[in-house]
Amino acid sequence: MQLPFAKYQAIGNDFILINNFDNLFRYTPTLVQQLCHRQFGIGADGIVTIEKKEGYDFSILHYNADGSRGGGFCGNGTRCALHYAIHLGLVQQEAFFVAFDGIHTGYLRNDLIHLKLKDIDHAIQPLYTGYFINNGTNHYVEIVSNVAQVNMMTMGLAKRKMVPFEKEGVNLSFVQLMHDSIFVRTCECGLEYEPLSCGTGAVASALIASSYYGLKSPVKVVTKGGDCSVTFTSLPDGKFKDIYLNGPVYQVFQGIIRLD
């Protein structure tokens, strides 16, 4: 069987996108690992499939490069899916769809994909030497003086199962505050290496920088893979609404997967 796909990247976070309206893609951990392998497969941080969903334009499913199902909302992967849906003509310039954590909207404007995340209806929690927030996925964020010097193997990847996240894990971001922006590096669950960026990590870091360090919307986020911005409306008691992750998305190439 032959299955069309597109390879996408959003600020360096790369994904295999599959239009699964005909249910041709059948998930197995081994298949996901093979396709995401950077030497023996297509190579990607994960796979995102676009699925039919009654009452919505579509729904999306996310699979990590290690073969596991995505245990949280994927911001950059979702922005790539929205771009691909527009490219395929499944929607026009905007979409109303379902993801891991519920209903979302997004749109394309001025060559940027703008993705609306769920409101934060609880205060961000200080935890250890950092902060915890769930913005569709669990994030632990630490502020550091020089993010480039952080050893991600010992300070990031090794701490993803820290207490109290032993069971499901937590994504860890390290953030350097700069004059008018933040520099973010993230370790994600489901990856055994540091990706070039993380969409929900960028959002979590921007909201924490706003709550505790006074940054105002929009917050420019610098990553190893490029820049994006986070816009939001601050509410009393540390809550947020109208949260958008905004940035470029690129289709790298298209191809056909042969599934025997």
TrEMBL record:
<comment type="similarity">
    <text>Belongs to the diaminopimelate epimerase family.</text>
</comment>
<dbReference type="GO" id="GO:0008837">
    <property type="term" value="F:diaminopimelate epimerase activity"/>
</dbReference>
<dbReference type="GO" id="GO:0009089">
    <property type="term" value="P:lysine biosynthetic process via diaminopimelate"/>
</dbReference>
<protein>
    <submittedName>
        <fullName>Diaminopimelate epimerase</fullName>
        <ecNumber>5.1.1.7</ecNumber>
    </submittedName>
</protein>
<dbReference type="InterPro" id="IPR001653">
    <property type="entry name" value="DAP_epimerase_DapF"/>
</dbReference>
<dbReference type="Pfam" id="PF01678">
    <property type="entry name" value="DAP_epimerase"/>
</dbReference>
<dbReference type="GO" id="GO:0005829">
    <property type="term" value="C:cytosol"/>
</dbReference>
<keyword id="KW-0413">Isomerase</keyword>
